[in-house]
Amino acid sequence: MSSRPRGRPRKLRRDELNQDELNPDLLNPDLLNPDLLNPDLLNKEAKALLREILALEALSKCSFIRGLANHISKIIICMSQGLTSGTLSYEDTAPVDRVVRIIRHGEKKMRRTIQRRSARQESRWRAEKALMEREIKKLGARVEGTVKRCREVLMLMRVRRESEKRMQSGEESDGSEN
């Protein structure tokens, strides 16, 4: 079994990527056709893709997203290779850099949100714990009072029973003298 949490995809190492799997057409200038980057078209495609993803079953979603992540990793590696070889410039990769920054910013924001939420939850738990401790102390005091009262009642019942026995034995002795 692996040590990573279940459901979390394994990080992809560079040596695991076959160079022939990296599509050289990704760097093809024809793919950067402005007509293909029409925001309205992208929004329609993104909405359709989102509907398709939501319609998938859980395992299919997981494998689809894992595959998508692998493709994104491969694209970023190709872009990095293009930058180092000089076939791409930083201006060419600026949109992807913006996306990466947005993702990082979102991760930081999400992490802060989760930290604030967990801090609030921890504070609530501490308050509930203190309340339960106070309630337990109150209940303990009530139980001790009840036990004390039960002992007093038992003592009174014994005394009463003994006095009744004495009275009965006294009446019997009085009755035998007549």
TrEMBL record:
Biased composition annotated in UniProt, kind: Basic residues: 1-12
Highest taxon of source: Eukaryota
Designated name of the protein: Uncharacterized protein
Residue ranges of the region described as Disordered: 1-21
